[in-house]
Amino acid sequence: MNWQLLPQFVVTGVLLAGPLALNALGIVLIFKSTYIFNFAQGQLLLLGALTTWWFAVVQGFPIWLAILFAMILAAILGFIIERFALRPLTGQHLLVIILMTLGLSQVLQGLSLLLFGSVQRNFPQMFSAANPYKITTPFIFNGSNIIIILKQNLVWSFVIAVLGVILVSLFFRFTRIGLTMRGTSEDHELAQSIGININRVFGISWALAGCVATTAGILLATSSGLDMSLSVVVLSAFPVVLLGGLDSIPGTLVGGLIIGISMGITSAAKVPIIRDMTEIVPYLLLLGTLLIRPEGLFGQKRIERI
Asked: What is the 3-state secondary structure (H, E, C) of 6-56?
C-alpha cells in the first residue's frame, strides 16, 4: 500500500460518491414510485448536460439560466416519456415496461447524436480548476505533513449530492405527493381504487428523475468533458443502487460512499494486479452483498407468494 497517497485516494473516493449517488438517485426515484428499473437514465443525463451546454455556449445565456432552462426541458421530457411511451403499457407485464426503457435509451442516444453530434465539447467552467482546496493532515511522511488536494468540482458535487438525497428523502416522507408516489409503487390497482391518479404520479416521478439526471450530467461534464460516452457513466451507478437497496434513497449515498472509498483504497495499492482491479471492485462488493442481503443494505425485504 502506498501510505503517502492513501489519504488522498480515500478522500477522493469519498467525494466521487457524490456523482455516483446522484446517478443512482435518479434510478431509485423511478423505481420507488413506479416499481420500474429505468435503463434510460444515462441518456437523460447526457441530454441534460448537452442542453445546458447549448443554452450556455451556443445561446450565450448565463450558466445559472442555462441550468434552469435545461431543468425545465428535462421535466417536460419526463412527462412526454410517461405520456406517450409508458402510459399505454399500464397494466402490462413488468418485463415489457423494462424493455421499453431499454428502447427509450437507444432512442434518446440517437436523438442526442442527431441534434448535437459526436464531437467532444468543453463544458463551461463553474468551478475553478486552478485553486483546489487543500487540507493539511496530521499524518507525517518523510518529516512533513501529508497534504490532501481536493478539486472544487468534486467537493461541490458531493455537497449537492448530499443535499439532493436529503431533500428527496424529506419529499417522499413528509409531502402528500411523495407519500402518494410510495403508495402507488406498492400496488397500482389498489392506488387507483382509492382515487390516486397513477398517471400523474408516474409523470411527476419521470420529471424528477430528469431533473436529477440533468444535475448529475452537469457535474460530471465539468470534470470529464462532454461527449456521447457520458451516458455510459450511469453503468457505475448500478452497483450503487443494488448495494444500497433499490427502494432506499439514503442507500444511494451510503452505497456511493462504500464503493467510492473501496475504489480509492484499491487505487493506492502498490501491486499492479490489485490496482488494476479498481474498476471491478464495485461489482465484487455488489456480489458479496447480494449473497448475504439480496435486497441490498437498506432495501425492504419482501415476502411474496409464488
From this structure: HHHHHHHHHHHHHHHHHHHHHHHHHHHHHCCCCCCHHHHHHHHHHHHHHHH
Cell of 251: 442507500
Q: What is the pTM of this model?
A: 0.87
Check residue 300 and report its DSSP letter: P
CB 161 within 8 A of CB 23: no
40-92: per-residue pLDDT in tens? 988 999 999 999 999 999 999 999 999 999 999 999 999 999 888 888 887 77
- How do residues 228-250 score in pLDDT, each as one tens digit? 888 887 777 888 888 888 888 88
What residue type is assigned to position 41 of the chain?
A: Q
Task: Compute CA 157 distance to the chain's CA centroid, rounded to the nearest angstrom.
Answer: 11
Lookup result for grid cell 402518494: 180
Domain ranges of the chain: 6-292
Q: Which of 161, 147, 154 is nearest to 127 (CA)?
A: 154
| Residue in this structure with the C-alpha cell 435503463, named with its chain if needed | 39
